[in-house]
Amino acid sequence: MTLVMPLLGLSAIGSLAYSEATEPFSEHQISAVEVQLSVPTEGHYMLGSDIKTYYEIRGQGEPVLFIHAGFNTSEMWLSYAERMSSDYMVITPDSRGHGRTTDGAGPITYGRMANDMVRLLDYLNIEKAHIVGHSDGGVIALHLLVDFPDRVKSAVLIGTPYNITNYKPGGIETLQEIMSKLYAGEDLLGFKSSFDRLSPDPSRYKEIISKLTTTYLSQPFFNRETLESITPPVLVIKVDNDEYLAPEVFDDLASSTPNARIFHIPEGKHNVPRVYTDELTKAIREFIDSQVNTSQQYDE
Amino acid sequence: MNRKAWYLKAVGVTGPTLKVLIYLFTFLISDGLLSSESESGQLNVDEPVHLAGEYIRVDDITMYYEASGNGEPIIMVHGIFGDHTRWAQQSVPLSAEFKVITPDSRGRGRTSDGEGPLSYGRMAADMIGLLDHLGIQKAHMIGHSEGGGIVLHALVDYPDRVASAVLIGAFYNVNNKPAAFQQRSGNIMNKLARDLPLTEEEQKEVIEGPFAYFQKSLLSQAQDPSRFSVVMAKMHASFTTQPTYTLDVLRTIQRPVLVVKAGNDALVPVQVFDELASSIPNAEVAEFPQGSHMVMVEQADEINQSVKDFIRRHPIEISRN
User: Fold this and answer.
1) Is the bond leading into B93 cis (omega within 30 degrees of zero)?
2) Could you tell me if B199 and B179 are in contact, meaning their C-beta atoms sit under 8 angstroms apart?
3) What pLDDT score does B214 carry?
4) Which one in A58, B35, B185, B264 has a CA-CA gap of 20 to 30 Å to A239?
5) ipTM score assigned to the predicted complex
């Protein structure tokens, strides 16, 4: 922590001082954007906030927002997009500071990234979406469930902690070690090489690692009472062999969240979305379809 | 249901004469005409100053705010039962030097509650939406009680929009507050939300306690008073489960923060102010040994002086890319 914290002060660079803003600074005012919803595979950029958000969008139907894990990018969902875009609108953004999305002047906290996702929904004119989140992406989904439930039709949580104490013993120390090595430039988890390949500004690498370290060593901070206040339907993917998360985390999520159910993949590890693509695709489809059918019944 | 009807129903009054009496009494109390030692405080503004008020669209709500003065912007975020008038003794004096902006939080005063919850994260996002609307990149933020929790969320998630912050009667975790107070207030909120009858003691609390300010505020100015039960339910959910910050989260805050340490706050134990001050890396402390939860009302001049000194020492940085 001591190694990286001083760098955080740099995060304000690039922001306009209040006195210099001649026009209303609206993060909802989008300019210089290219939206071509009909083009199936091309990526797009959303401007207008302190970041440039990269996202891909494919297909028509119920909107499903897939939020990737830490050290990952939207690429992790490609096989899901292929399997689901025939029947759903599959949206796969790169989170703040990840892939082709810039890190901006703000921190890379789960709360801020949840707000980034809401801005993307605003921009795409989507009032409510189904959310699928893996690991960090699941924590962002939890923030959406807590702070923006009116924008969430349902959520699928994969490999998702709700509190920093959910990690297995030694988990935080391991994470700290990983972050130090990443900061030193080691290509752990292929993150550095992926960053160099995709980032719009590879020189931001160390600052982004610093921002992520700050978040990883203090968040998430939800507890069971928070989960009890969640209203939208939730599907918890439970695995028995997650290397980072204690197995009871999945039971906590499912038992405390009022409208939750479990899909169990006993042999699964933390990387379950990559290994059990077919099983998960089927579970996600069935879950979303059951929610859509339920809400249609209520509409009648 | 008209405004009087829902209010009286909320306080569980049935006799027609009693209705009128309680109704009048509540107005007298919350107008400050009768003094009360309760959290509702006393507003000693001799001549009401009418500031420029405006309604704007932020996210899913219509937000009301008032603004006055020129200079570096200060956003002042009121507590759970408050509205912009809580800052009556700050907004006028401070506006001689600063642009003072006093919004009504989601579901309070003249701001609608929208589709969303009254969660701290959502309300922090509302404040950023207000900054966006006003074309303000960075502002100083002052938060009282729940407003302090909202400002803490802004410090964690939007530090690039916060120049400095002042925390008054603030807490960082739902468990910071005394259990008895939590229990009592939570029960009342739950009953009001579900239209359940209140005990005599609870009715007294609603009429004389901090709820009175809230009731008066909604009664006199809410966009849609029929939302009372819904707002109460949302408030109950947030009040009983949030915020859930830890000392580790406070340690990540990078902005300069002034913690007002009141020695006589019945709702926030003094150790919470110490924890805020010792955990936030760039924190300073302003000591008010006699101060209660409403210290900015009781010792307005001293608080205003502390705020001015602090903000002057932390001018908004003009950074260029």
Assistant:
1) no
2) no
3) 76
4) A58
5) 0.85
